[in-house]
């Protein structure tokens, strides 16, 4: 057996080894700074794409496990302040969720009508640009074509990386005083959270009981399907269900005398661990056949995918910051939610050094999630 054969048999086929090797290399790539910018955890995506192209596959369970851990942790962290923040800016968040997805949809329609890209491929690209797996599922169901999945794979990497870089660039371009902005933002979010019961029963000191309860409840919510016109249906899915459950338990903190809280350091660990698993799972999946897609469809498709990612992002930020007069942190958090970008939220929390931006993400995300599914269904049927 030659060296490459031995590597394929003993190394590439070892799922556990590949998962952590991709994570190691991904964090190394993500730590590289160019002009002061870095990909952070999103560096794992680039490495995963290469490994996926080389034939490494990671079970879908790894990606789903990562996604569930990430969004549940985000829900818990945002929960204590989410409902106050949402009540204060509800109209803005709803409007932004609609506008961001509508802008992406219009750019998709323009590319189909003016350039002639096949509709099923373009709708899949829109889902990839918005990093929305539920949107992809809706597109495949509406078009009945595997081309939607191909389009998703083309646009997904840029959809992730563009928002990650955007949330780092905007504060620099606007010359934002991060310390001042953070202080004002946290003050407006009413950082102090008071709990009703002091004498609570804790099932475990690490809060894994509460975390698991949120995931169980979230997955039950994820299975509920709401009928839509045309015979389609909508569900919160793996990303939306646990997020809502985490928000609720994070807000409640306790049920009677039973604590359902999770220590913040545990939540931060689960958030980062989940994000890493999600990116490496999604990246290896998108990387399979990546070069073949490029050779077959042409490099211009990547440019079209980039347009579908950039247009809604810039339109959304301009509306949020200039028209709705939201703060920089609120605007960027809303963009992450409106673009349904899980990795960008992780980067934004790191850049702003406050978990409170997760509230804006969590408020805009469900609106955008509903919109992208509806838009994918509509365009898949009528384009």
UniProtKB/TrEMBL annotation:
Transmembrane segment boundaries: 12-30, 37-59, 65-83, 95-116, 154-174, 200-222, 234-252, 273-293, 299-320, 332-351, 363-382
Tree of life domain: Bacteria
Topological category with respect to the lipid bilayer: Multi-pass membrane protein
Cited Pfam families: Asp-Al_Ex (PF06826)
Predominant subcellular localization, coarse grouping: membrane
GO cellular component: plasma membrane
Cellular compartment(s): Cell membrane
InterPro entries found in the cross-reference section: AAE_transporter, YidE_YbjL
Keywords: Cell membrane, Membrane, Transmembrane, Transmembrane helix, Transport
All copies of domain YidE/YbjL duplication, residue ranges: 19-170, 211-379
Protein family: Belongs to the AAE transporter (TC 2.A.81) family.
Protein name as annotated: Permease
Organism of derivation: Enterocloster asparagiformis
